[in-house]
Design goal:
- This protein is mainly alpha-helical and 233 residues long.
- It has one domain.
- Helix content is 40%, strand content 8%.
- A hairpin with a 5-residue loop joins strand 2 and strand 3.
- The chain starts with 10 loop residues before the first helix and ends with a helix.
């Protein structure tokens, strides 16, 4: 479906508007494609256990790395929707760590097989306790060391979304669960001003191991939800 946003719009802003202006409807997922400047070498963004992904088909006026083809970025971001994360050094060659499209490391291949029948409409709350434990066990085998636990971020943002709807007891429960998963997760505890709101994401986006992709204000939404939950605690 054609969708026009205009030139010179940062990828994160495109993602925010995609959420606001395009309905997923009955589809399992929504993927947006754009050709813009790759701000800070951002090539794509997706929500862990989400339904929406954004892919840069080309980078205007900026260098494109040989391993960031649109096919590889799409494969990487769809992986995040199934729960795939950024692996550690043992995952070298994986599409989740700058490898070619379709080349998944053993850890993420196991996660995708485990999650292949999941209902995308349910988000992270639809990932039951047994699957979360299995995901955590696989994640503990090795992962990128310089970013927060993405499951903690996904759970925290689900809580922030409930807080925005005024469902404070449910929001507090999820945010506390997120802190329990990873107390050091920056996106759970703090962030920029709350006027920049949106769910967290992980993406194939930088020429470094960090790769922590976020919508504008992801952490602000988390902080606002956490403050609201604390106010009721």
């Amino acid at each position: 479906m054609p969708w026009t946003i205009g030139p010179g719009v940062p990828l994160q802003n495109i993602m925010t508007r995609l959420h606001r202006e395009m309905a997923v409807g009955s589809a399992d997922v929504l993927v947006g494609f754009a050709a813009e400047r790759c701000e800070g070498l951002h090539y794509g963004v997706a929500h862990l256990f989400g339904r929406v992904a954004m892919v840069q088909t080309s980078c205007l006026d900026t260098a494109v790395l040989s391993n960031t083809t649109a096919e590889a970025v799409l494969s990487h971001e769809i992986g995040h929707l199934f729960g795939a994360f950024h692996p550690g050094p043992s995952g070298a060659g994986s599409v989740m760590r700058y490898g070619p499209a379709g080349a998944f490391d053993q850890q993420n291949a196991r996660i995708i097989r485990m999650m292949r029948a999941r209902d995308f409409t349910t988000g992270v709350p639809g990932v039951d306790e047994a699957m979360r434990k299995a995901w955590t066990t696989i994640y503990a085998e090795g992962h990128a060391s310089d970013e927060p636990n993405p499951l903690a971020g996904a759970i925290a943002n689900a809580g922030a979304a409930l807080a925005a709807e005024g469902k404070m007891p449910e929001a507090e429960a999820l945010i506390r669960e997120a802190v329990g998963v990873d107390p050091s997760a920056a996106r759970v505890h703090a962030g920029p001003s709350p006027e920049r709101a949106g769910p967290p994401a992980g993406g194939r986006e930088r020429a470094s191991d960090r790769e922590a992709a976020e919508l504008p204000g992801d952490r602000g939404a988390d902080r606002a939800g956490l403050r609201a939950a604390q106010a009721r605690a």
